[in-house]
Design a protein that fits this description.
eight-stranded mixed barrel; six-stranded antiparallel β-sheet; disordered C terminus; alpha+beta; single chain
């Protein structure tokens, strides 16, 4: 059990009431009764009693002298009532407060009339420095007792002892004849001395102690009878010999009366040093000078002062070492303290910050948003937090986190506040950089995909007020070739230059973003006419026509653009719109690049079809859905089979057989063309070997396979092809690899190395679809080409179109001059065949011979002894 703050107040009031008893109390019993009742009330103890120590027949006994039951008035006990406690327990009371054990409590059950049972009990000795006058017992409180309770009740108990002693002394003085010098003022002095909270010691002319009040007894630990006659140096040791005679108590008739105290150091009975402020009063008694010393114990004050000084020094050090600025104000908000860090962050000296100068550091734009909420929070006694800008005299801005908390006095008044500031400029700059990285492309400085999508969603939400918007999706043509040829650093410089040109082609409010490696998107908002998107696209195409100077080289670049629109009432979201623009971009790429195309629902259907077929292709090879078809090649001079072209067919489980142009581009885009081509070459080579082994074809018959440009960039292509030739045990010279001119456009080292690698293993190279848009005599000169195939688009109309006739004739003449073999594709009738023969074309293929057929059908024709002489060609085709 501990006393709370309210009970401490009650304790002080009780002590004051006890002291007032001196003027009316007739005996000490009254002081004990009042002390007992007060102790019961403060500890909420229903029962309490005081027992006095007596020695009877040589043994220690405890005789009950006062009782208090249920916090009513305490009464004295006249009849002898001795406590039935063991001797050891009685002796233990000399050592301080004790909790009575349950075993001892059992001895007290039924001992007091009206008390059935004791649940708990505590004994507190009523003692001074030298003797125990009695024991205070408290019992049956609702909460548990604790021995520390005796320390809290100590003022009450010591005052009880002092008052009882004074009353007894006064009673004794009354019974005796008054001393010669006694008078009424002396009586009043004795009363004052007894209740004075300060230590009062009287010394005679020989500086020996003649009186000591109860407070001095308690402080020094001496009993008055024990200390009387001792020199004052017992209580106030001298610093040097005869200090008290020569200085402390030396008589000086010219000295004015002393009204101020002097600091002195005393020593208690136990040798403990005590700090005092001492006032000395002199008076003459029987012609001799006496001294009255009124001493105030300042030990706790000195300790508190030392602690305060240490705390002040600690605060100063912490304030100087703290990474935050610290400001203290008074109730008028005038600065009274600021540490160095505050001055550093504010960019001002201490003199500039004191008074109201600290307010000038707050940025004018933030002043009212800070001061008014701060004033409200402090006046309401609440903590304040706000981030704001500080402005230094050199116009430098600093972001700070401002925290403030009011200082409240003990009576509840707000005496000012303490504020801290933390420099958060670095965090703001870091957040800006992170935001920049999160929203912008680090290479070009344009918006990135996330930022662009956010603006697109914002733009879509405003179409009902600001009109339509257009989304342009751009992809640079041939950028990979620039990266592979000139390196990634040059590629980055090119992207930066393209970004600058794109930005110049749009309005300031439009958004240009880099959303991928060489992919850009442009958002045009507030369009009143859809033609604006076309005009911007034309401007972009024109802006990219001039070459870019990269690493002292001229680099030409173009772009393909896909365009889609969003108008009021559309339900498209940002992702759908970006997908539509990407579909239109794909169409622009397919249409030959360097152009722009608009999105349409047909494009979306085609895209969905392409996605469906692409997903199906991933499983087609494992499910053996691919087939190899063969088409004859025939000599125009001998009319004999010279070989075959192996072509790929796909037997889709739902769509049936699909033509190459329906799925080959998808295979190429997805990269599946590599494993499928390996399967095609291996399968066709093995079939060719079987036919040769069975004598169904000539030993010099060739097998031709078309190869995607992607395969020429595959580092394992040549090795895989050589393995297929080795596995099938055919002669490498019987293999023809057909490539399109598209594969030669890149002029890369990979393409050249691949073609040279084919020649090294003995494979012939045929240039397929010659004359369709990309024909270049440079290709025929630069690369090891063995054969030219004239595209069917020229052959089919060679007899009807003079232009086609001239092209076919020119190609054959060119090939002959370069000693290249010429193959005509798409021959469908005898007249065309005869015309080609007249031009000395070497070989032909087409429906006139046969449509591409599976190996089983071809084998049947070979078994039937197929003859293709001119006189039999018509019948054979029939």
């Amino acid at each position: 059990m501990l006393l709370d703050r309210r009970q401490d107040v009650e304790l002080r009031d009780a002590v004051s009431s006890l002291r007032q008893m001196l003027s009316v109390a007739k005996n000490a019993s009254t002081a004990y009764q009042d002390t007992l009742k007060t102790a019961c009330e403060l500890t909420h103890s229903p029962f309490g009693f005081i027992a006095k120590r007596e020695i009877i027949d040589g043994s220690l006994e405890l005789k009950v002298s006062h009782l208090c039951h249920n916090e009513v008035e305490a009464t004295s006990v006249s009849e002898p009532l001795f406590l039935p406690l063991t001797p050891q327990v009685k002796l233990n009371f000399c050592n301080g407060a004790q909790l009575i054990s349950q075993q001892e409590l059992s001895n007290l059950q039924g001992f007091f009339e009206g008390v059935e049972r004791f649940n708990q009990m505590m004994a507190i000795p009523i003692s001074d420095a030298h003797s125990i006058h009695g024991v205070l017992f408290l019992a049956n409180a609702q909460t548990a007792y604790h021995t520390s309770l005796s320390m809290r009740l100590w003022p009450l108990i010591t005052n009880c002892i002092c008052i009882a002693r004074i009353i007894d002394q006064r009673k004794n003085n009354t019974d005796q004849s008054p001393p010669q010098d006694s008078s009424t003022p002396n009586e009043l002095y004795y009363l004052f001395e007894g209740v004075c909270p300060l230590s009062v010691v009287t010394v005679d002319h020989q500086l020996k102690i003649v009186r000591m009040n109860p407070r001095a007894e308690a402080i020094f630990g001496y009993n008055q009878n024990q200390i009387i006659g001792s020199p004052i140096s017992t209580l106030l040791p001298e610093r040097f010999t005869n200090e008290h005679h020569t200085q402390t108590f030396a008589y000086n008739p010219l000295a004015p009366p002393q009204h101020t105290s002097s600091p002195m150091i005393g020593r208690s009975y136990k040798g403990v040093a005590i700090n005092f402020d001492v006032n000395k009063l002199q008076y003459v008694l029987k012609g001799k000078r006496h001294h009255i010393l009124i001493m105030r114990d300042t030990t706790e004050i000195e300790i508190a002062r030392t602690q305060h000084e240490e705390e002040v020094e600690r605060f100063r050090i912490l304030a100087d070492l703290a990474p935050v600025g610290i400001l203290q104000t008074n109730s008028d908000w005038s600065g009274i303290y600021a540490n160095d860090r505050w001055c550093e962050i504010a960019g001002r000296s201490m003199s500039d910050i004191l008074e109201l100068g600290w307010l000038s550091a707050i940025h004018p734009d933030h002043f009212h948003n800070v001061i008014e909420p701060l004033r409200t929070a402090i006046s309401e006694g609440k903590e304040f937090k706000r981030e704001c800008l500080f402005l230094k005299p050199n116009s430098e801005q600093t972001w700070v986190e401002l925290h403030a908390r009011p200082q409240i006095s003990t009576n509840g008044d707000i005496t000012g506040f303490i504020a801290t500031i933390l420099d958060s400029t670095f965090r703001h700059e870091a957040e800006d950089k992170l935001r920049e990285l999160a929203e912008h492309d680090p290479l070009t400085g344009l918006a990135n995909r996330a930022m662009f999508q956010h603006r697109l969603e914002h733009g879509l939400a405003r179409t009902h007020r600001h009109g339509s918007l257009a989304l342009l999706c751009l992809d640079l043509d041939g950028f990979k070739n620039v990266n592979d040829t000139l390196g990634h650093d040059c590629g980055d410089e090119l992207l930066i230059e393209v970004a600058k040109r794109l930005t110049k082609c749009v309005r300031e409010e439009d958004t240009v973003a880099r959303v991928g490696g060489d992919e850009f998107m442009i958002l045009l908002e507030g369009l009143k006419d859809a033609q604006i998107a076309a005009e911007v696209s034309e401007k972009i195409l024109n802006s990219l026509e001039p070459p870019c100077s990269i690493n002292r080289q001229e680099v030409f670049i173009s772009t393909s653009i896909g365009i889609t629109f969003a108008t009021k009432g559309d339900k498209n979201d940002s992702k759908s719109l970006m997908k539509q623009a990407d579909m239109a971009l794909y169409r622009a790429k397919h249409e030959g690049r360097n152009n722009y195309q608009y999105y349409s629902p047909d494009l979306e259907r085609a895209s969905q079809e392409r996605l469906y077929l692409g997903n199906s292709l991933h499983h087609a090879l494992q499910r053996t859905e691919f087939q190899v078809f063969y088409q004859f090649k025939c000599s125009l001079s001998t009319h004999k089979i010279t070989g075959f072209e192996a072509v790929l067919r796909w037997e889709h489980p739902r769509r049936g057989q699909l033509q190459p142009d329906q799925f080959i581009p998808i295979l190429d885009e997805s990269g599946l063309i590599v494993p499928v081509s390996r399967w095609l070459t291996h399968t066709s080579f093995m079939q060719h070997a079987k036919w040769k082994a069975r004598g169904l074809i000539e030993k010099d018959a060739k097998i031709a396979v078309n190869v995607s440009p992607r395969l020429l960039r595959d580092p394992y292509f040549i090795r895989g092809l050589a393995n297929s030739i080795q596995d099938s045990k055919i002669d490498p010279t019987s293999v023809i690899i057909e490539i399109t001119e598209t594969a030669l456009l890149e002029h890369s080292e990979q393409t050249t190395d691949a073609l040279n690698g084919l020649k090294r293993i003995g494979v012939a190279i045929s240039l397929d679809d010659f004359g369709t848009g990309f024909s270049s005599l440079t290709h025929l000169k630069r690369y090891p080409i063995d054969q030219i195939k004239i595209d069917r688009s020229f052959v089919q109309n060679v007899l009807k179109d003079s232009g086609d006739k001239a092209i076919v004739k020119a190609v054959i003449v060119l090939a002959k001059s370069l000693k290249l073999t010429v193959v005509a594709e798409g021959v469908e009738d005898k007249a065309t065949l005869d015309y080609l023969a007249s031009l000395n074309c070497d070989e032909y293929q087409g429906f006139y011979l046969n449509k591409p057929q599976p190996a089983e059908e071809i084998e049947k024709q070979l078994h039937s002894g197929l003859q293709l002489a001119p006189s039999q060609a018509d019948n054979s085709s029939k």
